[in-house]
Amino acid sequence: MKIRAKIILLLLLNLFILFNVIYLSFALINSLSFDLIPLFSDNPQVQNAFSEIIKEYHTLIIFTLVVVSYIWAISNPLIHILEWIVHLAKDRYIEPMDSNGIPRSLSKRKGKLKYSYVFFKSILNNLQYLTNTLKVHKENEKELDKLKKAWVADIAHDLKTPLSYIKGYSSMLSGSNQWTEQERKKFLLKIEEKAYYMESLLLDLNNVFEFERASIDIHTEQVDLVSFVREEIIDFANTPIMEKYHVKLIDNLECPFMYTFDPSLIRRVLQNLLTNAVLHNSEGTNVQVSISRDDLFVVLEVKDDGKGMEQETIRQLYSRKNKGEATNSNFMPRGLGIPIVKQFIEAHDGNMSIESEIGQGTSVKLYLPLSK
């Protein structure tokens, strides 16, 4: 039933009750009013004056008494509702209580809705639903603010490590001329590596907030996936950070393999995974990127034979609030890379998995659906 129909029905019901009360009051006062006058005064003149007043203003008196009584009866629920709304406006997500801590709309003995509140039951139920909903939203908002502060604090913490490297190597280069050309090249390579890592962290942070604002648009186009991945790997392999690492592509698909996706997002995914595979492993680590398919998905796998991770670390990687933490102190924090990868893959209706063992390396598989 629509709200307007409910209001009209409630109004008609209240008018019906009001007129019945007035009718009964007329009958009661007509039979008792003149009999009650002698109880107040024995003076015949006073009794006659009261009788004249009752005869003259009989209808007005009865109507006034009934209306005032009726208004008093419904004022408590209305005041209760208004006070509840004020509570919500002040972020107090609870129904107004009496001095005993019991909601004012409920009976103290039976705990049921008071009779005078029955006509407002629908409004009270909706207010209770609104109160619970606002309370949950407020708690979620506080949790989200807490997580955002933690992300920013973690990013700031993660930036300190590469900054200390950059400052240290810069001081060593500028403070002495005793270094050989090979040592100078090594220091510069370390500085460039840490700068690349800082850039990756900042890009991750930017992507996090863009996704939180839902401001990242997915622009898909049909592209040869094999050629796209090959070009990205070649570009990454030619960066200075890859000088002492090895990366190769294993292509199990026919070429060209046309697939619809957002090149900018998948490029960011590959950059994140390849950067993780290099920055968190020792020099000489082999990184392998493979492309295959099954009946449902195109599968992109980035695999390395590096240090590997504990299962607890893998679990934490999926959550931004645990970003920067690691169960093993030998591992550098992995920034926001994995949550970003997960978001970008899910934006393509795909999913991902991570497998890793200490000393056995890490494998990250991305599953992109063949049909959308």
UniProtKB/TrEMBL annotation:
Coiled coil ranges: none
SMART domains in UniProt: HATPase_c, HisKA
UniProt keyword Transferase present: yes
Enzyme Commission number(s) of this protein: 2.7.13.3
UniProt-listed InterPro entries: HATPase_C_sf, HATPase_dom, His_kinase_dom, HisK_dim/P_dom, HisK_dim/P_sf, Sensor_HK_Regulatory, Sig_transdc_His_kin-like_C
GO molecular function terms listed in the Swiss-Prot or TrEMBL record: ATP binding; phosphorelay sensor kinase activity
Protein name, per record: histidine kinase
SUPFAM superfamilies the record matches: ATPase domain of HSP90 chaperone/DNA topoisomerase II/histidine kinase, Homodimeric domain of signal transducing histidine kinase
Pfam families noted in UniProt: HATPase_c (PF02518), HisKA (PF00512)
Cross-referenced PANTHER family: HISTIDINE KINASE 1 (PTHR43711:SF1), TWO-COMPONENT HISTIDINE KINASE (PTHR43711)
Keyword Transmembrane listed: yes
Catalytic reaction list: ATP + protein L-histidine = ADP + protein N-phospho-L-histidine
Class in the EC hierarchy, top level: transferase
Domain Histidine kinase: start-end pairs: 154-372
Keywords noted in UniProt: ATP-binding, Kinase, Membrane, Nucleotide-binding, Phosphoprotein, Transferase, Transmembrane, Transmembrane helix, Two-component regulatory system
Lineage of source species: Bacteria, Bacillati, Bacillota, Bacilli, Bacillales
Spans through the membrane: 7-29, 60-82
